[in-house]
Write a structure and sequence with these properties.
Elements: H1 2-37, E1 81-83, E2 103-108, E3 114-120, H2 139-142, E4 148-151, H3 156-164, E5 169-171, E6 181-182, E7 193-194, H4 197-206, E8 220-222, E9 233-234, E10 237-242, E11 245-252, E12 257-262, E13 265-266, E14 277-278, E15 280-290, E16 299-302, E17 305-313, E18 316-324, E19 332-335, E20 342-344, E21 348-354, E22 358-361
Parallel strand pairs: 1-4, 2-21, 4-5, 8-20, 15-21
Antiparallel strand pairs: 1-3, 2-3, 6-7, 9-18, 10-11, 10-22, 11-12, 12-13, 12-14, 15-16, 15-17, 17-18, 18-19
Length: 362
């Protein structure tokens, strides 16, 4: 009986002693757990970590005021998305989302083919794609608008320069179906990856990318076709020949729009099932060349300096000039007399053409 009582007392004393020891050790171990599990705030991370770091403000800025229409100006405070779109062959067709962009670039890539880069301000396309890999000189155009650069993988040059210019990017190579999805189950099909503006915006918010554009929209719009190119040459049919493909536009005087053709066929949009159209076509002649030693024949391009081109709208074309002070600066577009370019209200396609490319207008 006494042995049992003594044993019980001993056990109680042991438990009390262990509890006291545990309380004494807790303050020493707790800081270690905090330091291990909670990273330093994003602003203190070194630049070497790359552009995916959350280097925007801790508190997201107030959202920009919605557009009254897709071409309301100015796009004050609204940060755009610039997305790389595959344009190789017929397996990519029909592409999605191009009709919702205010500006679409068509630029030469390896093999004499082209890749597209639509730039979206405030529109909400539900399917954008097929999203394709980055090329470094496309940054020269996306940086003009302080755009978030969206792509799926990329060339070695693009990877280096995204870090060099500290660009905010959304890269499908490292993201799952919460941002990108595939239309097929074929792992060998690199031409079937899609995203949506809703998914891109959610990911940008998660990364705390700033949502207020740091530059202004570089163009102004007219309200009527008659104001844009007085005295211009006829341009009812426009044919642009890249080394390995041809783009074509035909003017519809009823709608005041140019219907777009690709490989000789109507260029259709996936969601609407309608033919793509353009209100304005800007042609810029730019020097390009093969990168020495690049096994894939990738291109480089001189986007700085100055050059010539055309503005085509409402069935007319006029010669223009362009200039760009640095790779990240905005391109300045002027008429031959030096006055700033004015566009008609509507979608604009910017065709970046090699110096020796053939452009015909009739």
């Amino acid at each position: 009986m006494r042995k049992g009582l003594a044993l019980l007392i001993a056990l109680i004393l042991t438990a009390l002693s262990a509890a006291a020891c545990g309380s004494a050790e807790e303050p020493d171990t707790q800081p270690v757990v905090v330091e291990t599990d909670v990273p330093e705030p994003p602003v203190t991370m070194p630049p070497a970590e790359g552009p995916k770091e959350q280097d925007g403000p801790d508190e997201p800025a107030e959202p920009a005021e919605p557009l009254k229409d897709d071409y309301s100006l100015p796009f004050e405070g609204m940060r755009p998305m610039a997305v790389m779109i595959d344009n190789e062959g017929t397996r990519v067709l029909p592409q999605g989302g191009l009709d919702k962009a205010q500006i679409v670039y068509e630029v030469i890539v390896e093999g004499g083919l082209t890749r597209l880069m639509p730039v979206f301000w405030g529109t909400e396309p539900e399917m954008i794609g097929p999203v394709r890999s980055a090329r470094h000189y496309f940054l020269d155009f996306s940086m003009e608008y302080d755009a978030i650069y969206v792509h799926y993988g990329g060339s070695p040059q693009a990877g280096e320069e995204i870090k060099k210019f500290k660009q905010h990017e959304i890269d499908g190579m490292y993201l799952g179906p919460d941002v990108f999805w595939d239309l097929t189950n074929d792992r060998r099909n690199w031409q079937d990856s899609y995203t949506s503006m809703e998914k891109l915006k959610k990911h940008a918010e998660k990364k705390k990318f700033h949502n207020m554009a740091e530059v202004k929209f570089p163009f102004t719009y007219n309200e009527a076709c008659k104001d844009v190119v007085p005295g211009g040459d006829n341009a009812s049919v426009v044919t642009l020949k890249y080394p390995s493909m041809t783009s074509k536009y035909e003017y519809d005087s009823t709608s005041g729009m140019y219907k777009r053709f690709r490989y000789g066929k109507e260029h259709m949009e996936r969601v609407t099932g309608k033919q793509l159209t353009a209100k304005n076509i800007i042609v810029l002649y730019v020097q390009n060349w093969d990168i020495k030693g690049d096994y894939a024949g990738r291109q480089d391009m001189k986007t700085t300096g100055s050059g010539n081109g055309f503005l085509i709208s409402c069935g007319k074309a006029v010669k223009i000039k362009w200039s760009k002070e640095s790779r990240s600066a905005q391109t300045k577009y002027t008429y031959e007399n030096g006055d700033p370019l004015v566009l008609n209200r509507g979608q604009t396609w910017i065709q970046i053409m090699p110096l020796n490319a053939k452009v015909t207008m009739e």
